[in-house]
Amino acid sequence: MHVIVGNMGRHNALVASVPNLQRMMGCSRNTVLRAINVLKDENWIEVRQLGGVGTTNAYIVNDRVAWSGPRDGIRYSLFSAAVLVSDNEQPDKSEIGAQPPLERIPTLYPGERQLPTGPSMPPPSQPSLEGLEPDLPATSRDDPAQ
After folding, report:
1. For residue 35, is it within any domain?
2. Is the CB of residue 87 less than 8 Å from the CB of residue 68?
3. Residue 5's domain spans which residues?
4. Is residue 55 part of a domain?
5. What is the count of structural domains for the chain?
6. What SS3 state is found at 114?
7. Which of the two ends of the chain, N or C, has the fewest CB atoms closer than 10 A to its terminal CB?
8. Could you tell me which residues belong to the region Disordered (predicted)?
């Protein structure tokens, strides 16, 4: 319980794999699974599996997950969680720390409006109708008083 609570941050949930919890706790896989089952059976945590059969779960503390009604026949839940991963679980662990920075998504603050930027398309044009040509400003002046 201390490992889960100590790593969940401000959230009431932690997403972690069993092998990662095993390394953090310094014990065997069976000990981790027994501890999780005791916490679950005694209603200290709720465990939700992520994806198909696997070892990564969300461990929810203090509140039950709120499930929304069926959407296309699927019940779903949306909640915030801290995610705990280790480098030895990553397929690209030799490249970690050497990747270029990610692009930043611009943020709008309350009261701000988005202004268009960047290259744009030229305005649409249509040929003038005979006799209805636009009255464009003169490019030269015959009379300097004008």
Report:
1. yes
2. no
3. 1-61+83-88
4. yes
5. 1
6. coil
7. C
8. 89-146
Angle in degrees, 0-180, between the axes of helices 18-25 and 29-41, rounded to the nearest 10: 100
Q: Please state the pTM of the whole predicted model.
A: 0.61
Q: Domain holding 41: CATH number? A: 1.10.10.10
| Dist. CA 37–CA 90, nearest whole Å | 27
Whether 9 is covered by a domain: the verdict is yes
Tell me the two tokens of residue 10: 């401000």
pLDDT digits (tens, 9 = 90+) for 133-142: 777 666 666 6
List the structure tokens of 34.
Answer: 């027994």
Work out the pLDDT band at 112, boundaries 50, 70, 90.
confident
Reading across the β-sheet that carries 56-61, which strands appear in turn? 45-49, 56-61, 13-17, 82-83
- Looking at the chain, which runs of residues are DSSP E strands? 13-17, 45-49, 56-61, 68-71, 74-76, 82-83
